[in-house]
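user: Kindly work through both lines:
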Amino acid sequence: MTRKKKAKVKSEASSSKPFELDEIDRACKEIEEEETKNKRKNKEKISESNKDELKEKLSMTVSKDKKQTVEKQTEKEFAGDKMKSDEKSQSWIAETVSVVIEHLNKFGACVIDDFLGERKGVRILDEVLDLRKREIFQEGQLASVKAEKSIRSDKITWTDGASPPTPNIKNLINMIDTIVMTANKAPNNGVLSNYNIGSRTKAMIACYPGEGTHYVKHIDNPNKDGRCITAIYYLNKNWEPEKDGGSLKIYSACVEGVIAQVDPFFDRVIFFWSDRRNPHEVLPAYRERYAITVWYMDEKEKSDFEEKKRLKVASTSSTSDTQRSAI
């Protein structure tokens, strides 16, 4: 480029007035300086570009490292939270068992609110409502069907949480199992030590459809069939006892003169003795009322009851055969 410029300058010089050599040299130097400046600028641009690219790469690396650090930290926090949750759960179970033992011994019943928490309670309610939609609920039954509607007017179904699959109801049953079985095996557990609880019934889901549906005063286990503890879990959100009714009324024989009225509030559970110590009734309900009940069995009483039943059936069968022979 420098040579071309010089050639052009010389050509112009031959056709017009001549240039001094100093002027030509100065012009060449200016051109060379300009080129040098341009090269320097280009280098600086490339350098800046490289720097930016390097910064971006470093930033991405730092960001990636930071993300990995955050992810690891989150994992640790999650594991820590889970550990805390497990510890809290174990701690909560121990405290609940202690309260259940104390209250069953003192009052014959124990009420616990906020049993599983809002979220878990709602999931259980959703499963119950889904079962209701399937129309598998039937009229609640009694030993005698005479005047049944005037005695109990709820609709019921039974589940073990597996068939049909209702995992949240199953979790509820498992939690109640844990509390009852732990209380039964705990040292210094008072009256509970008289029982050897080894089994339970399926869960009975009951719906009182409203319109004054109720269950008159009765005893869960008047015949010593093995049931020793009744556990009821309630699922009724925004329940207003004055307007909605449906309270459980217990005529306790454990504390003289005490009549307890337990409102069926959402996520509330009650434990009480199933025998003649706790006659109870469900007062008329004026909106849909849902509850899940489980009965826990004393193995000896259950075995004795089944043996008596077997002997009674055998005796009845033998009497029938004798009567036929006589004819």
